[in-house]
Specification:
The chain contains 13 helices and 10 strands. It is an alpha+beta fold. The longest helix is centred in the middle third of the chain and has 18 residues. Interacts transiently with the RNA polymerase catalytic core formed by RpoA, RpoB, RpoC and RpoZ (2 alpha, 1 beta, 1 beta' and 1 omega subunit) to form the RNA polymerase holoenzyme that can initiate transcription.
Length: about 325
C-alpha cells in the first residue's frame, strides 16, 4: 500500500513518519476546538488512528494536512456533540467580594485547561506571536462560546488562514454557508473583545525583569513590592472555583485574608502556558517539611505590569503536563 502526499508517493513506513510530522499542528487545532490539552491529545490520537485505517482512501488530490484536518474536525465535532462548553470563571458571572462564602465549585461546569507552549507546533519566527495570541486563555474561552461548526470555520479561516473554499470542502458545505458562519462567529467574538488578528508582544528584557520582581515579591509576600508590579485593575481567578476577583485591592484582600496560607510559597518557572509565563506554586507543607503543589499560576502582562493571574488548582494533572516536580524539598 502507498500514500500519496502532494507530489510524493510514500510507502507505508514513510507514511507513518509523515503522519507523525503533523501531530503538533493538529494538537494546536484540536486544543482550540476543545479547550483542554488532555482532550486535544485524545482527539489527535483518534485522528491518527482513523487516518492510518483510511490510508488507502487518500489519493493525493488534497494536501495531507488538509486531509488530516478534515479527520480531526470530525473527531472534535463528535467529541463536542451534546457536551456543555468549557469556560473560565469570568464567563459565568460578575466578579464577587473576596470572602470565603463566595468560594464555590460548580459540578455542572467543565473548565478550560491550560496547555504548555512546548506542546504546540513549531513555527517560523514571524508566526510565533500570532500562534501565542490565538491560544491565550481569553481567546480560547471566547472560541468555546461559538457553536462547534462556527468554531471550526473561524479557526480554519482566521487562525490557520485557509480559504473559504477549502473550509467549505472540509465541512462539506457551501462557501456561502462558511462565510455566513464566519460572520456570526466574528460578531460573537466581538462581544468578548477577543480577536484572531491581534498579535501578542514578545517577552522582552523588561518583562523578564518584571517577572523576576513578581516572583520575588510573591515569595516574600511583600505587599509594597507586589503593589509595584500588579496593575490596579488586575484580575484573579482560581478554577475549579467560580469566584473571580476584579481589582488589585480585592486580590490583595484575598491573598492577605482567606488566602494567607499561600504566604511562604515558592514559585518554580514552568513552560509557558497559552503563550503566557507560568509558574508552579508550592505552598509550605503542613508537615513543616518542604513545599506541596498548590497551583499552576498563569501570569498575563499588560503595559509593563501584571494584569491577570489564573491559579489552576488541578495540580495532579497539570504539574506532570508542565514538567513540574510533585513537591519541593528543603
Amino acid at each position: 500500500m502507498t500514500l500519496v502526499s502532494d507530489t510524493t508517493v510514500l510507502t507505508i513506513p514513510s507514511a507513518e513518519a509523515q503522519l507523525d510530522d503533523h501531530r503538533r499542528p493538529l494538537l494546536a487545532y484540536c486544543y482550540r476546538m476543545l479547550g483542554s490539552p488532555f482532550e486535544a491529545e485524545d482527539a489527535v490520537q483518534e485522528t491518527m488512528l482513523r487516518a492510518w485505517r483510511a490510508l488507502d482512501s487518500f489519493d493525493g488530490r488534497s494536501a495531507l494536512a488538509t486531509w488530516l484536518h478534515r479527520i480531526a474536525t470530525n473527531v472534535c465535532l463528535d467529541m463536542l456533540r451534546g457536551r456543555q462548553r468549557r469556560a473560565l470563571p469570568m464567563d459565568l458571572g460578575p466578579a464577587q467580594e473576596p470572602i470565603v462564602s463566595n468560594l464555590h465549585t460548580r459540578s455542572e461546569v467543565t473548565w478550560i485547561e491550560p496547555i504548555p507552549g512546548n506542546a504546540l507546533a513549531e513555527l517560523d519566527p514571524a508566526d510565533v506571536a500570532v500562534e501565542r495570541d490565538t491560544v491565550k486563555l481569553a481567546f480560547i474561552a471566547a472560541l468555546q462560546q461559538l457553536p462547534p461548526r462556527q468554531r471550526a470555520a473561524l479557526i480554519l479561516c482566521e487562525v490557520l488562514r485557509w480559504q473559504a473554499t477549502e473550509v467549505a470542502e472540509l465541512l462539506e458545505t457551501s462557501v456561502a454557508s462558511v462565510n455566513s458562519a464566519l460572520q456570526r462567529a466574528r460578531t460573537t467574538l466581538a462581544t468578548t473583545g477577543a480577536s484572531a488578528d491581534s498579535v501578542a508582544p514578545t517577552v522582552d528584557e523588561n518583562q523578564e525583569e518584571l517577572l523576576r520582581r513578581y516572583v520575588d515579591a510573591f515569595q516574600r509576600y511583600d505587599l509594597t513590592a507586589l503593589t509595584a508590579v500588579i496593575r490596579e485593575d488586575a484580575v484573579q481567578s482560581m478554577p475549579p472555583y467560580d469566584l473571580w476577583l476584579s481589582g488589585r485591592d480585592d486580590v490583595f484582600a484575598w491573598w492577605f485574608g482567606p488566602g494567607i496560607g499561600c504566604q511562604g510559597s515558592r514559585l518554580l518557572p514552568a513552560a509557558t502556558a497559552n503563550g503566557s509565563p507560568a509558574f508552579g506554586q508550592y505552598k509550605p507543607s503542613e508537615s513543616g517539611s518542604g513545599h506541596e503543589p498548590w497551583a499552576l499560576q498563569v501570569v498575563e502582562i499588560e503595559n509593563g505590569a501584571v494584569k491577570e493571574i489564573t491559579f489552576f488548582l488541578d495540580t495532579q494533572r497539570l504539574f506532570p503536563l508542565f514538567g513540574l516536580p510533585p513537591r519541593l524539598d528543603g
